[in-house]
Amino acid sequence: MTAYQTLDQLEANGKTVLVRVDLNVPMSDGKVSDFTRIDRVAPTIKELTEKGARVVLLSHFGRPKGQIVPDMSLEPVAHVMSERLGIEINFVNTCVGNEAIDAVRSTGNAGVILMENVRFFAGEEQNNADFAASLAALGDIYVNDAFSCSHRAHASTEAIARLLPAYAGRNMEAELTALSAALEVPARPVMAIVGGAKISTKLDLLFNLIEKVDNLVIGGGMANTFLNAKGVDVGASLCEHDLADTANEILAKAEAVGCDIILPEDGVLAKEFKEHAKNRTANVLEVDAEEMILDAGPATVSHICSRLADCKTLIWNGPLGAFEIEPFGTGTFAVAEVAKRQTQNNKLVSVAGGGDTVAALSRADVTDSFTYISTAGGAFLEWMEGKDLPGVKALMAQ
Description:
Layout: E1 16-20, E2 27-28, E3 31-32, H1 36-50, E4 54-58, H2 75-85, E5 89-92, H3 98-105, E6 112-115, H4 122-125, H5 129-136, E7 141-144, H6 155-159, E8 166-168, H7 170-184, E9 190-194, H8 203-210, E10 215-218, H9 220-229, H10 244-257, E11 260-262, E12 266-270, E13 279-283, E14 292-296, H11 298-308, E15 313-317, H12 330-344, E16 349-353, H13 355-363, E17 372-374, H14 378-384, H15 390-396
Parallel strand pairs: 1-4, 1-7, 4-6, 5-6, 7-8, 9-10, 9-15, 10-11, 15-16, 16-17
Antiparallel strand pairs: 2-3, 12-13, 12-14
Helix pairs in contact: 9-10, 11-12
C-alpha cells in the first residue's frame, strides 16, 4: 500500500487539528445504543490531546440532504462522548463561519469540540471546494479517522485533505493495516467467505476476490444462484435465476486462475422462513420444490473448516445462512468458532467486515478473538472490490 502519514509523524503541540470521525451511531429513543464507533476514535482523540493539540471533531449523522434537521443534530452524541471518554467535549451548533472560528479560538490546548453535522450543508456531499475551504479555515492540520466514510468523495473526507497537511488517525491506520495484510500482502493460503442474499450486489467483489484468494466460500442465498447455475434444483430457495450465466462466468474464471470455489454440499431445509420452523438436513440435490435452503449443513461446514485449517488468512463478508433466525445460524457460528480458535493460536489472520457479518460474529461471540473487525460497511465492501476510496487516496497524495 502506498505510504501515508500517521500520528507518529504529526507535531501536534499547540496546533488545531481537524479530525474527521464517524459518529453516525445507532440511536434508540434518543440515546446512543451502540458505542463501537465512539470507542474506535477514542485513541486518536486522547493521543492528540495528550500531545497538546486543540481537537476539532467533524462528523455527519443521518441523511439530512443539506438541510438543518434538528433530529439529526450531533449534540446528544457530544454528551455521550464526554462521559464515555472522560474528556469534556463541547458542542458547537455549526461547523463553518465566524461562530465556528470563534469556538475554536476560545478552546485551549488539549481541548476538544464537536462541530454540528457537516451534512447540514449541501457543500459536504457535493465535495464543494468552497465548503471544504471553510472547514479547513478552522485548523492547521487534518486527520482522517473515518475509514467507514472514506468511500465517499465528500468535502470533509476528500477535498479538505488536499488543503491541509493530512494524516491517518489510529482507527484509519488500523483499518488500512488490517486490510492490507488480508488482501494486498497476505500470508497464504487465503480463504474468503462471502455470503448474503444476492450475487447481484456483490459481482465486483466476487470477480476481484477470485484473483486474490486461494479458496472462495460462497454461502447464504448467493450460493443458491451458483447451485442453480450448475443445474441443481434449489426448490423455493432465494435464487437469482436470471444470473445463471454470470454465475457460470465466475466459476469458469475461478477455475482459470486457480481459485477453488466452495459451494454447499448439504443444507438445512425448511418450508417456512420463521423462528424454529420445522426443518431437515439434506444434500443440496434433495431439495423439495416447496423447501428453502436456510443454512449450510454439517458436511459443508466440515469441508469449510478442513480447508480453513490449512489457511493463514481469512477474509469474511456475509453469513452462511439466515443466522438471525433460530436455528439457521448454526453453520455460520460453527465456522466462526473454528476461525476464532485458529486466530487465538496465532495460526490465522482473520479480518471481517460488513453489517450482517459483524452481527453474526457478535452473536457467535467471536469478535474479540478475530484479528480485526471492520466497523465500515460500504467502504469495507468497496475496498474488497478493489476500488479506490477517495478519502484514502487523498491521504496517499500527501
